[in-house]
Prior knowledge:
Layout: E1 39-44, E2 47-52, E3 57-58, E4 62-63, E5 72-74, E6 80-84, E7 91-96, E8 101-102, E9 106-107, E10 112-117, E11 123-128, E12 133-138, E13 144-149, E14 154-159, E15 165-170, E16 175-180, E17 185-186, E18 190-191, E19 196-201, E20 207-212, E21 216-221, E22 226-227, E23 231-232, E24 237-242, E25 248-253, E26 257-261, E27 266-267, E28 276-280, E29 286-291, E30 295-300, E31 305-306, E32 310-311, E33 316-321, E34 327-332, E35 335-340, E36 345-346, E37 350-351, E38 359-361
Antiparallel strand pairs: 1-2, 1-38, 2-3, 2-4, 5-6, 6-7, 7-8, 7-9, 10-11, 11-12, 12-13, 14-15, 15-16, 16-17, 16-18, 19-20, 20-21, 21-22, 21-23, 24-25, 25-26, 26-27, 28-29, 29-30, 30-31, 30-32, 33-34, 34-35, 35-36, 35-37
Amino acid sequence: MHSHLTRIRLAAVAALAIPALAGSASPGSPPAASASVVTAYVLNGGAVTPINTVTKMALKQISTKGGPSFLMAMTPNGKKVYVADYDGGPGVLPISTATNSPGKQILVARNTSALGVTPDSTTLYVVDQDSNDAIAVSTATGQTVGFVPTGEAPVAIAITPNGASGYIANFGTTSVTPFTVATNAPGGAINLSYAPTRFAVTPDSKTVYVDGTASIVTPINTATNKIGRRIQLGAAAGDIAITPNGKTAYVSTSAGVVPINTATNRPGKLIKIPGGAIAITPNGKTAYVAAGSGVVTPINTATNKPGKPISVGTSASDIAITPHGKTAYVTSSLGVTPINIATNKPGKLIKVAGGAGLIVITP
């Protein structure tokens, strides 16, 4: 089983210029901008497609050297994208965002189920569902530098924004394994009453929220690794994201979206909209929810009132927002739809061969 959020949503970081590349555009498309641009990377089957967010043009696809993959992660400094082998598998492929070229495959796991990167971008964690551990890999050398033993069938990983602690969701043993990033030493298992699949961490690194197969979200105090008051959602939990100021967590459910006050860990009134993948603007003013029904709904985070649904024409699978907060990119089976955040108007579909799944954007 694979968690939808194997790429972990990290705290916002300052914009980092990524040089555009001459000659990287697809035949017939305009050349990449001469100035530095932000690039979106879209996982589509057995390839990754870069998208120039200035021209909104898809560039040349990068083969992942395997079949369809469902796992992708980017280093917070924006220099590398990592893609796991087909349906998990033993290999992880690094892609340089400076050249959009793949590097040497990293063969460390039997069945990769999650990827995570430390905030300083120095270490990649490859979670292995078969061997029940997470392998720490140097992003500079691609060599193994440590191991973290986990519970059975680990499926997701989160690393706190301060880089001190990590958390691994164990689907098989309905528990969470905390560990110290500096030493890779695990702490005692944090037992839950349900199988965990997703994490979100507050920007101050003080609390980890975990949901999964139940209609429950559990907060974990990172200083003590003690669980707090369980938050009842009233419906099966899905994606989860936290505002940049850390005040509100939004949880997608089968009935809508539940806002959680992180100061009290009390849920607010259900926002009755189609649930799906969640992304929040860098200024924290709007949360966008991309639903499988083909609509994206903006939520005003000050009032928790939903805005007018935005049609993207087909079932949406993932959403990401540019670091300057001007555009949201929504993936689907047809490609990628850009949404102008100032107007909430969708732009022209960016067609991606094979459809589009996970998306990450350079900081």
